[in-house]
Amino acid sequence: MYLLHFAVCSSDADIVQEDNVKLGQAGEDVNLACTFSKLLQTTTAWFKQTADRKNVQIVSLYLNQQPSWNEDFDKTNRFNVIKGDDHFNLTILKTKPSDSATYYCVVSSYYTIGMGAGTRLLVKGIHIILQQSSIDKLHPGDSVSLQCSIFTESCAGEHSVYWFRQSLGESQGVLYTKGERNGQCENSTESQTQSCVYNLFKSNISHSDAGIYYCAVAACGEILFGKGTELNFRGKQLMLHCLLMYSVICNLIFNMLFEFYIYLVACTYGQLYRKEIHQQMLVGMFNSVYLHYIGFSTIDCKIR
């Protein structure tokens, strides 16, 4: 109780974190500096506060003993600390987008506890370009290799590749097949870039394989989708076009013949009815029905 009574919190001014906000690119090393008064030398620590306000202790150091690491950070081998009489700096190697958070430096003595204002670290993802090959002509029975290429500014961990197929009658995003990192990668020392090519090979393809194939690559904490490669069959399209053209021509011929038949029928019956009505007119018997029909039958046909 005596110690608790005399324990006070030190002002933030006693502990200085140089950068309020620090920007980093994924794959780079970042150093978070923390300086303090030489009087505060008992225990030093670093805490990480994530976006959901969850506080996690990264490391603590008592006097000049070995650092005590949180196992989640120790096993990554990416975090390191440098301790001096007036500083306790945290270094993060090969940063990832998941390292984005606010980092607090905490220093305590027997009677005081101080905390810095915090450094907000924002790690941007590596610039990634994803390309998919295009295919021009396909016929049933052919073999085809779908290609997916990824270009990154630097190599950062393994890539996972997924292939999706969208075909007629299926919703977009239906999982067709899944592949791990089975491609070939090349590094360029001049431009510090890496290019990887992944292939999906299909043999003896048929009409049931038609559709749009999408490549998705999970890399550097991001997931990118390609624009898709469409598998079309030229033979099938040509046959459909021919059938459509044949159907249109047949329909046209049928309509012409049908109209000509109606014309002949109308002419024949028109003349018969006219003759009958003329005979009735001679005997002086008019019928309103026939009179109405005469008005309706106006087709003038001349047979020579």
Structural class: alpha+beta
CATH architecture of the largest domain: Sandwich
At the first level of CATH, the class of the largest domain is Mainly Beta
Q: What's the tally of helices?
A: 4
Write the H/E string, N to C.
HEEEEEEEEHEEEEEEEEEEEEEEHH
- Total domain modules: 3
Give the proportion of residues in helices.
10-25%
3D shape: elongated
Report the mean per-residue pLDDT as an integer. 70
Work out the number of β strands: 22
Proportion in β-strands: 35-45%
CATH topology of the largest domain, which one? Immunoglobulin-like
Describe the main β-sheet briefly. 8 strands, mixed
Structure description:
This protein is 22% helix and 38% strand. Mean pLDDT is 70; it is low at 1-8, 171-181 and 281-304. It folds into three domains: 2-124, Sandwich (Immunoglobulin-like), CATH 2.60.40; 128-232, Immunoglobulins (Immunoglobulin-like); 240-296. The protein is built from four helices and 22 strands. Strands 1, 3, 6, 7, 8, 11, 12 and 13 form an eight-stranded mixed beta sheet that branches. Strands 16, 17, 20, 21 and 22 form a five-stranded antiparallel beta sheet that branches. The protein is α+β, with helices and mostly antiparallel strands. The chain crosses the membrane at residues 243-265. It is found in: Cell membrane.
